[in-house]
Amino acid sequence: MTNDIEPIKDPGLPAHVHRKADSDPIAAARAERQVAILFGLSAVGTLLLIYSYIFVKNDKFIFIPIIGETGAQQLGIGMGMAIALFCIGAGAIHWAKTLMPDEEVIAQRHEFRSDDEDRAEFVKTVKAGASAAGLGRRPLIKRSLGLALGLSGLTPLLLLRDLGPLPKDNLQKTSWKAGMRLVTDPGDRPIRPEDLEVGAVAQTLPQLAPGEERTLNNIGKDAVLLIRLRPEEFNLTAERLSWTHEGIIAFSKICSHMGCAVALYEQQTKHLLCPCHQSTFDVTRAAKVIFGPAARPLPQLNITVDAEGFLVARTPFTEPIGPSFWERSS
Amino acid sequence: MIFALFTIGTTFQVASAVNNDTTTVAARSATVDEGKQLFLKGCSSCHGINAEGGGIAPSLIGVGAASVDFQVGTGRMPLENMSAQAMRKPPIYNAAQVNALATYVASLAPGPAVPTDAVLNYERDGSIAQGGQLFRTNCAMCHNFAAQGGALTQGKYAPTLMGVEPKYIYEALITGPQSMPVFSDKTITPAEKLSIIKWIKSTEAEPQLAGSSLGRVGPVTEGLLVWTLGIGLLIGVAVWLAMKAK
């Protein structure tokens, strides 16, 4: 009994199938016409582009079904360019597929290694060049070149400094300080508790000292949402309840998940919704997360009124606002 | 046309301003009576005989004429069914009946009044730039940056503001209908409210400059188009490229 297994034979290439256009001159002429039509269409597209750019006024509007009224110039330029580029490509592919030679050709790979004679010749040339340049004889040039190249290598290392400086306590703190008034954003007007009806909201920022300027950085950190509820609707700890004022509660608007502005307030359900990832916070329970990816409640701002009856922050935020970061304590 | 819209909704207010006191009082009490009859027939089964509210509907005492004018004038009330949100539909009551209902509810307790067209002159008193700034801070998160509307939780949504009459936008701001919070006159002054309206109206009139705006809702429809039509086209081309010619 023999154990020999028939080795699988190399099946070789399948027989070449000729295309219709290879044998039938009528089919070949048809394919040629089709390619020419595509290239012709491309030319028409370019002409449309040029015509739209030069002759169509940019305040002209035309009606296109489905799309509706739309600016004619931009539409002409866009459609013209799309037709021009697409038809060049489509024509070239059709040409290559139907008319260009499609016989399979096998090109043999050759060895990568150069032959010994060439390699010896190369080594000789390099050595001759090096001795002619006189690197060995002129140490000053050699060393100064080494210094220049070595130092230039430091440049990318130096640019790493731009990854800094470290944020220090910028992530921990906002501009809010004890006694700072809450002012409307935009408008910068201080707010009295009686200005807000039950069910009202107000977007606020800390009041600036005279001469101080509001930067986008500050707005991005300091934005606070004021919401007024009926005081009996709150379900808060005694401490957090004391942070509210006559039913007005204040939260940082910066989501504790990714830092989007959380301000979709549903008056009936008392839910605050973040538009980015649908984190939902329950206002009556100190912005407890009831849905979505946020890990923590929105930080609550401790508010009261000052001697003139305007709403002020009693203390700064007691925790960092916004998303998590490595050094965050909680 | 906008003028006509204002007048329809606010006939009573204008009339009461020009009439002398005695006829105003008489006309007013007649309207209150008419409103009460309409209320008893159409609204009291949910909102209670005295508008005190019930298990499924809130009390209307103190909501003001503006709230009634908004809810009934836009057809949101009477409610069609108990879905997540009352949506805009052709109004059941005509302008005079809406006015009567609003006057009756306003007579129960003071509340925000329907703004007159003198107040609503947003073309004169509003500023588009200021309105845009206010809109982006206060409205855009729910109603979309181009006022096209957007989704809230559990089937609720912020409706589009395209084509909404200035009066109803103003009333929504001062009364906070359904999920929408109230925007008090001290935090967003009446002049600032008009700026918001002017900005919305300018956005409404903005033309499509090149092709379809895809509903102006940003990456949602744009992404959908690219992922279906765009990638579909690429797959089609790839298949054609790899196909052997006959």
SSE arrangement:
The complex is a heterodimer of chains A (330) and B (246).
Chain A: H1 20-23, H2 25-55, E1 61-64, E2 68-71, H3 72-98, H4 116-133, H5 139-152, H6 154-159, E3 182-184, E4 201-206, H7 216-222, E5 224-228, H8 238-242, E6 248-252, E7 264-266, E8 271-273, E9 280-282, E10 288-291, E11 300-301, E12 303-305, E13 311-313
Antiparallel strand pairs in A: 1-2, 3-4, 4-5, 5-6, 6-11, 7-8, 8-9, 9-10, 12-13
Helix pairs in contact in A: 2-3
Chain B: H1 2-18, H2 21-42, H3 44-47, H4 64-73, H5 95-108, H6 122-125, H7 128-138, H8 140-143, E1 150-151, E2 157-158, H9 166-175, H10 190-204, H11 219-242
Antiparallel strand pairs in B: 1-2
The overall number of domains of chain B is 2
Beta content of chain A: 5-15%
- Major sheet attributes of chain A: 5 strands, antiparallel
Question: How would you spell out the order of helices and strands of chain A?
Answer: HHEEHHHHEEHEHEEEEEEEE
How many strands, which pairing sense, and closed or not: the largest β-sheet of chain B? 2 strands, antiparallel
CATH topology of the largest domain in chain B: Cytochrome Bc1 Complex, Chain D, domain 2
Q: What is the average per-residue confidence, as pLDDT of chain B, rounded to a whole number?
A: 86
Parts with pLDDT < 50 across at least 5 consecutive residues of chain A: none
Distance between the termini of chain A: 77 Å
Main interface by residue count: A-B, 49 and 38 residues
CATH classification class of the largest domain in chain B? Mainly Alpha
Rg of chain A, Å, rounded:
37 Å
Task: Describe this structure as you would to a colleague.
- The complex is a heterodimer of chains A (330) and B (246).
- With 330 residues, chain A is α+β, with helices and mostly antiparallel strands.
- In chain A, 34% of the residues lie in helices and 15% in strands.
- Chain A is built from eight helices and 13 strands.
- Chain A has helices spanning 20-23, 25-55, 72-98, 116-133, 139-152, 154-159, 216-222, 238-242, and strands at 61-64, 68-71, 182-184, 201-206, 224-228, 248-252, 264-266, 271-273, 280-282, 288-291, 300-301, 303-305, 311-313.
- In chain A, strand 9 and strand 10 form a beta hairpin.
- Helix content of chain B is 55%, strand content 2%.
- In chain B, a hairpin with a 5-residue loop joins strand 1 and strand 2.
- In chain B, helix 1 (2-18) packs across helix 5 (95-108), helix 2 (21-42) packs across helix 5 and helix 4 (64-73) packs antiparallel against helix 5.
- Residues 7-20 of chain B have low confidence and may be disordered.
- The interface between A and B is large, with 49 and 38 residues.
